[in-house]
Amino acid sequence: QVQLVESGGGLVQAGGSLRLSCAASGRTFSSLAMGWFCQAPGKEREFVATISGSGKSTYYADSVKGRFTISRDNAKNTVYLQMNSLKPEDTAVYYCAARISAVARTLVAEYSHWGQGTQVTVSS
């Protein structure tokens, strides 16, 4: 079983930055591909970014390319999401997710373990 704990959400003005962290336990971290997803009120959960177990492969949703960066520190069992140039439309609950494979994927259904979520609110 994999346990995930997110931190780093909060309230920020448009144009600002936040860094989300997700600490994992319960399995060899480098064997897990990790992803970040978000869910706004009344909307489905959607893909934001993913990173392979080695950290060599990353993929982003078009809406965040050039603004968000996913990274991981396998020595610390932690994945990060650096969020820059934030927009009000980025407001959502952000979830960290893990899949039992080192290969990064972008679909919600391909992830078996989820954190509790952290709220990100961007004011205009």
Describe this structure in words.
- With 124 residues, the chain is an all-beta fold.
- Helices cover 0% and strands 49% of the residues.
- It is built from no helices and 11 strands.
- The strands form 2 sheets. Strands 2, 4, 5, 6, 9, 10 and 11 form a 7-stranded mixed beta sheet that branches. Strands 1-3-8-7 form a 4-stranded antiparallel beta sheet, with no helix packed on it.
Oligomeric state = single chain
Number of helices: 0
Rg from Cα: 13 Å
**What characterizes the major β-sheet?**
7 strands, mixed
Overall strand count: 11
Taking pLDDT < 50 over at least 5 consecutive residues as the criterion, the unreliable ranges are none
Structural class: mainly beta
- The secondary-structure element order is EEEEEEEEEEE
Mean pLDDT: 97
Shape annotation: globular
Strand content: over 45%
> How far is the N terminus from the C terminus?
40 Å
- Bin the helical content: under 10%
List the defining traits of the structure above:
mainly beta; seven-stranded mixed β-sheet; four-stranded antiparallel β-sheet; 124 residues
Quick overview of this protein structure:
The protein has strands at 3-7, 10-13, 18-25, 33-39, 46-51, 58-60, 68-73, 78-83, 92-99, 113-114, 118-123.
Topology:
Blueprint lengths: L2 E5 L2 E4 L4 E8 L7 E7 L6 E6 L6 E3 L7 E6 L4 E6 L8 E8 L13 E2 L3 E6 L1
Parallel strand pairs: 2-11
Antiparallel strand pairs: 1-3, 3-8, 4-5, 4-9, 5-6, 7-8, 9-10, 9-11
